[in-house]
Design goal:
Blueprint lengths: L5 H6 L4 E6 L5 H16 L3 E6 L14 E3 L9 E5 L18 E6 L12 E4 L5 H11 L6 H14 L10 H12 L4 H10 L3 H12 L2 E3 L4 E6 L1 H6 L10 H5 L7 E8 L2 E7 L7 H7 L3 E2 L3 E7 L3
Parallel strand pairs: 1-2, 1-4, 2-3, 4-5, 5-6, 8-9
Antiparallel strand pairs: 7-8, 9-10, 10-12, 11-12
Helix pairs in contact: 2-3, 2-4, 3-4, 4-5, 4-6
GO molecular function, one term: nucleic acid binding
Pfam family, one: DHH
Organism: Berkelbacteria bacterium GW2011_GWA2_35_9
């Protein structure tokens, strides 16, 4: 794991620290940022977490001090970028980080965030939350039950409920330890699966009914447009998790859900085929992610 030894040395020089997560935050971004905040507070730091987008409804139970990036310019001199594979995904611009120290923590296997980072902790782990857990262990910091909840959320989210191929014996050991620390896996499950309001269920039903299969490339996909979002009283956050739900047939190469909202198309892709790398596909559209799970946001010109 790169640069973990620099962690304490770097934060020792700063009393106030900013943590920034990526646009359209998922469970790993939310869980790992909250856990990192707890770790920094243990070392006596004042911490603010910034997000370009509002937190999805499913995470509101965990909303604890998030600041809207557009309304709150970052004044802290040290900025942690958490779970961000690309600077463009943070919502920050170059002037936001002028004369700032950037410390990134990320687990994406083709992370580009090192281009703007003076310090980087990178590891090929299931999630950024698993890396944060390892930082706690490295410095022998006790993990309280609430922090364990945050870390479980991150791991559970980025492993598709412990079903993806990025789960190994180390991941299971981490989860087991977090449960021993008082973490509740049920909380992660409720955030990601149980908060399905009636309109959202109807939207998912519509999307599933409209699934199409591209036989040439082995792609199963569905498209949701502005019209459907308006019809069911939903937004793009209500589609979160749908691509994981349909990712269930080993004979299909790629599962994808495309959402049109205003002049943008958001794509989410999953694959369990060892020969397919959806992260490379996402990069074509300035997106990113992992070999098995990736996404992008494409702006429609004109």
């Amino acid at each position: 794991m790169k640069s973990i030894a620099n962690f304490y040395k770097v934060i020792s020089s700063y009393e106030e620290i900013a943590v920034v997560i990526h646009k359209n935050p998922d469970g790993d971004a939310v869980g790992s940022s909250l856990a990192l905040r707890d770790l920094l507070k243990y070392f006596g730091k004042k911490v603010k977490i910034y997000s370009f987008d509002e937190l999805p409804e499913m995470f509101l139970v965990l909303q604890d001090g998030y600041l809207k990036l557009m309304d709150n310019p970052i004044v802290e001199k040290l900025i942690f970028l958490v779970d961000c594979a690309d600077f463009n995904l943070t919502g920050l611009i170059n002037t936001d980080i002028l004369n700032k120290i950037i410390f990134s923590i990320d687990h994406h296997n083709r992370t580009k965030i090192k281009k703007v980072s003076k310090y980087l902790i990178y590891a090929d782990k299931s999630s950024t939350a698993e890396i944060i857990y390892n930082i706690f262990q490295y410095f022998n910091v006790d993990i309280e039950s609430k922090t364990a909840d945050y870390l479980l959320l991150g791991i559970y989210s980025d492993t598709g409920g412990m079903l993806h191929s990025n789960v190994n014996e180390k991941t299971l050991e981490v989860v087991s330890n977090l449960l021993l620390y008082g973490g509740k896996l049920k909380l992660a499950m409720s955030c990601l699966k149980e908060r399905k309001k009636f309109n959202r269920i109807k939207l998912w039903g519509y999307a599933i009914e409209r699934l199409k299969f591209n036989q040439k490339y082995g792609i199963l996909y569905s498209v949701i447009t502005n019209l459907e979002l308006e019809k069911y009283g939903c937004d793009q956050n209500d589609v979160s998790g749908l691509v994981n739900f349909i990712n269930s047939d080993k004979n299909i190469n790629v599962f994808a859900v495309f959402i049109q909202q205003n002049n943008k198309i958001k794509g989410s892709m999953r694959s369990e085929n060892k020969l397919i790398d959806v992260g490379k596909i996402a990069e074509i559209f300035s997106g990113g992610g992992h070999k098995k799970a990736a996404g992008f946001v494409y702006k429609i010109e004109g």
